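Reopening: C-alpha cells for the uracil complex, inputs below.
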Amino acid sequence: MTDSSRVEPFDAVDVIRTKRDGGRVPEDALRWMIDAYTREYVADSQMAAFAMAVLLNGMDRDEIRVMTDAMIASGERMSFAGLGKPTVDKHSTGGVGDKITLPLAPLVAAFGVAVPQLSGRGLGHTGGTLDKLESIPGWRAALSNDEMTAQLRDVGAVICAAGSGLAPADKRLYALRDVTGTVEAIPLIASSIMSKKIAEGTDALVLDVKFGSGAFMRDYDRARQLAETMVALGTDSGVKTTALLTDMNTPLGLAIGNANEVRESVEVLAGGGPADVVELTVALAREMLALAGQPDADVEAALRDGRAMDAWRRMITAQDGDPDATLPTPNETHTVVAPRDGFVTRIDALSFGVAAWRLGAGRARAEDPVLHSAGIDLHAKPGDRVAAGQPLFTIGGPDDTRFARALESLEGEWEIGDDAPVRESIVRERIKAGGY
Ligand code: URA
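Re-run output (same inputs, fresh job):
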C-alpha cells in the first residue's frame, strides 16, 4: 500500500533511465525500486520498462545479488537451523516427464538429511510436482510451517506447497514479466528462482538446469549461463550451490502426466524404473549428499534395499496420503504403433509435453483443475529397436474427447530411422562456484 506522507528517496524514472542507457543501478536505488514496487508505489508500467531494460542491457553480478536480496527482504525468511541436521533442496527449471523430486526427496532423506521441497503446480507443458502427488488419494499439499518442520524432523523429506509469504515481490514481478515479454532475461530468472530458494532457508541447493526442446531454456549456452548465474547467487548468499546441466530434448522416463508419473517414481523407489530417471535421480542425490557432507553415500544401495521406499511411504503418510491406494487410470486409451522396423531416433519433449497438457494432464490457467489419469505412456525411447506394428506410445484420459487435439501436436514429432542414434548421458555438465 502507498503512504502519501512518505518522502521517497529515489525516482523510478531515474532508475529506469540508468538501466536503459546501459548503466549500473546503485545498490540503494535498486533495493528501493523493489521495495517500492512491493508497496505499489512504483507502478506496473514502470517496473515493466525496467524489466525490459534489464532484458536488453543485463545486470552485473552485484546487481543481481542486490536484486535477489531485495526480493527476499520483501517477504518472510524461513529457518530450519533448529532441526539438528543439514538441509538440502533441489530445484529443477522444469521439463516434460520430470518427476525426479518424487523419488529424490525420500532417497536423500534416507541418509539423515532434511529435504524441504517447496513446490508448485504446473502451468503450460511442464507438469507440477504437487499436481502429480495430488493423484494419491488423501495427500495434502498445504502444510503449516510447524507441520513442515515436524515432518522434516521425523521423516526428513517434505514436498509441499510454497506459501505466499516467500518473496512476494517476485510473485508480482513474475506475473508482470509473463505479459511483457521479459520472462527470458537471465538476471530476472536467476533472481526470481533464487530469491524463493534462499528465503526458504536451506543450507545447500542443487539446481537441475535443463536445456533442449522441452526446457524453459532451449539453448545450451544460455542454460549454462543461467546455471552459472544461479550458482554464483547461491554462493554469494551463503547457500552451498551446485548445478547440473541436463538434457530435456526427450521426455524423462516413460510416463508423462500425473498418476502415471507417480507410478513410475514408485518403480524407481523399488529399485527399478527407466534408466534415464534412475540416472538423474542418482546424480542429483549424489550432489545433494555431497553438499550435506556425505560424498561417499551409496545412493543406489538405498534404492535397492528399500530404505528410500520406506522414507517415501512415511513422507506420503505424514501428509495424509495412502501409499497403498490405487492410483487413477485412464478410462479411454489410444495406442500409436511403429509403421516400420527400425530404431526410434526422436521423441520430441516439447510436443509430447503439449500433447499431455492437451489431454488434461496440465492446465492453461492457474485456477484450472488437472485430470490425474490423463497422460502419455511411452513404450519405446530413442535408441530402442522396434518392429512394424509394435506399440510406440499410448495416450489416455477419462474420455477420448481430447485425443484428436493431442494427436495433432504429435504429428511429425517422433521418428524411426535405420540407424540407432548415439546415446548420450542425461547429465552433460556440472557447474560449481567459481564460474560466472
Ligand atoms: N521460474 C521462476 O520461478 N521464475 C522465473 O523467472 C522462471 C522460472
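The radius of gyration is 22 Å. Residues 86 and 293 are 9 Å apart (CA to CA). Marking as resolved unless the reporter disagrees.
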